[in-house]
Known about the structure:
The chain is α/β, with parallel strands linked by helices. Helix content is 39%, strand content 13%. The termini are far apart.
Amino acid sequence: MASQSRFGINEWLVDEQYERYLNDPGSVDRTWREFFASAVPVIGRQARNGSTTTHDSTDGSAVKAVRVAALIEAYRVRGHLVADTDPLTTGQVVAHPELDFTAFGLRDDDLQGEFVVDGFGGQATMTLRDVLDSLREFYCRSVGTEYMHIQSSQERRWVQQRIESPQPRPDVAEQLQILYRLGAAEAFETFLQTKYVGHKRYSLEGGESAIVLLDALLLRSIRTGVKDAVIGMAHRGRLNVLANTIGKSYAEIFHEFEDAVDIRSVQGSGDVKYHLGAEGTYRALDGGTIAVSVVANPSHLEIVGPVAQGVVRAKQESAADGGEAFPVLPIVVHGDAAFAGQGVVSETLNMSQLPGYRTGGTVHIVINNQVGFTTSPASSRSSTYATDVARSVEAPIFHVNGDDPEAVVRVARLAFDYRQTFHKDVVIDLICYRRHGHSEVDDPSITQPAMYDRIDVRDSVRKLYAEALVRRGDIGERQVEGALRDYQGHLERAFVETRALPVPHSPKPVPVNAPDAQNAAAPQVATAITEATARHVIASQTGVPRGFTVHARVLPQLQRRTTMLDAGTIDWATAEALSIGSLLLDGVPVRLAGQDSRHGTFGQRHAVLIDRRTGAEHTPLSSLGSQAASFAPYDSMLSELGALAFEYGYSLARPEALVLWEAQFGDFVNGAQTVIDEYISSSEQKWGQRSGVTLLLPHGLEGQGPDHSSGRIERFLQLCAQGNMTVAMPSLPGNYFHLLRQQALDEHRRPLVVFTPKSMLRSKAATSKLTELTTGAFRPVIPDETVDTARIRRVLVCSGKVFYDLDAYRRSADLSDTAIVRLERLYPFPEEELGAELARFPTEAEVRWVQEEPENQGAWSFVAPCVDRLVSRPVECVSRPPAPAPAVGSARRHAGEQKDLVMSAFR
Length: 907
């Protein structure tokens, strides 16, 4: 084929440039534009009928220029594949056939030829030899850059201009600073290795340049006016970052190694030292400062990423003053195996440009040890790089050799500047190695013998850098000795601080039968509102802007809300709107996020209205007046794990806000089980970290099958202890109203899990009167006030929707000997309130617990011992029989089961 003879194996590159030219001529360099516009388009391209069109011509200057342009383009696309980025294979990079200039039809006798290069390297023309030298310098040294996958030509050019220019060496002061910081990082690890042999610490040795990288990011932040940085990271290097970046004292860290921390402190049972978070101030040598924090994290690696994003988003919104749009810098530090292997990384990257989640760009740092625990890359990813997932959001990726700290600093500045310019994510792949085993207690040479033979004989990056500086004549031996003294000074101070530690006392044993804090529920706050407030909020539901066309199916729903106050038929959606609206008027910001949450999974909410004609949006609760707090309802991406982790992080940094996360169906919350287990239920005990995040989980067996029936009440209750969270299943809109307001107004808030209704959303039986909102408070137990207590011989205790089925049967059967008591809050268990209600009935009355769920699910296992303590007779459970699935798949079978369950409760 003629095209192959002209452009060889790189014909694809010419095709790619031609497609860009057709779409936007300005997106390609001038050489390409002139070539494609000329009468000599020497390209062998498939015609629409499948035939090949070729134009033979002599290799004129235009064609030669295009060959050189194609060579330059190939290095921009493929140069990273031959970059010298691996410190363990320095100088052993294998050539790539697509980067051989002869593959472009160029020959040795072209090397001295002068070609138009359209500004490449800042030149109008260059010899081919100079072009090749520049390409290798720009794309094949210690940094390999991936950026040509970015669709925006503006962004590509921005990166290109900064890469394709000479890089000045840092001055002596900066070189010494890099050397000192490498010394501090190494000193810390060396000390721990010698002092605490056999302890897990997830050393940074082999990747000490990460400290220099963070320095460069924070110094750049200070100089551009960024006031705050939030770091999310897993174990590797965490202690080093806490000591050398956050400023956590050596003494405090060594206390943790010595187990000298009081286990009865505010951090409850505590956590291992490499999970703890911290806050501090990073100080530049010129006196500039930036607040910096590391978010606490569990062993579940990448789950800290979306948590950190939530923290940053909340801080940015709190700091919003009309100035910098994204004044807080998010930095997430990853491991190579986890970045490629954990799905939550993809979820978090996907958030980066979404309206409800974007934080103005995150700097991702992959500490690439080139191995997982003992797993090699060939077994842990299918992609070329650990970072390939980041290409999905068109993030530029800089692969940098961790043993070239000057290149690391250069890349850090470039990454930060890109984030500031385009407010997008950027990735730094710090290719280094792990000097010891995964947690310092295993022998990595068992599984990676060849790799660790190379590591064992390799000097540290600090020593290599010092030798390079002396060899280049940048600094003298005396200055290196000064840096070494500084390094030794770090060691001495560490030793002194350790020797000063008191000998830890053996902690007193904690009594096994210590009373559970669950019965010490927080005192109720005033949650009732005035009638005027209610009417003001309701008026917003139909007060749309002039010319706004509400959808014909939505408008009647909104109009009905305005009549409910007087009719005494306030439904769930209206009660929720009144709760949120009144909180906004009280100055409490509210954030609501979830799949379809603006509209509502069941078409009930309509928090945001869409103009039927124009598509414009209007949020009724945002029109309550200038004094009202902000209401931010968002539809989330189709995710539970990353989405809930984000809301948890947001709630940490904005405790004054009511933060609501809604599952599409409660069943799907199990996709976020890691967040529930590791953060929501236990973070206060582990880290002293308090969150008020609220989960809204639609729940109820209604014949929709096993995956649209249960929010898994049993799993949440299993995690309840020491007053760590509130779990509720209200059966009345008015009680739901008070529950949300109580959660928002209680200064001692904990996470709240609400099992919300589905069919009850439109049930005429499940409505409330206005007086239920203007008086009273949340009722953890709703008594049965319709019966003659003296005649009762059976008391049914239940939660949620099943009450209405039981009550309907009782009415239809005209039964007067059965009371039905509603347990609205499952945890903290309302022992006092339920005990008072049960005491109203004869002692010989039989007490039964009734639930829709199978016996081995639902609340029964949790409430059984609690109710048993309140009555003199054993409590019976009326439920579906034990089952591995929450519900059956047949609607007809479900209806039969439900009928049998209700009837059996009265037998």
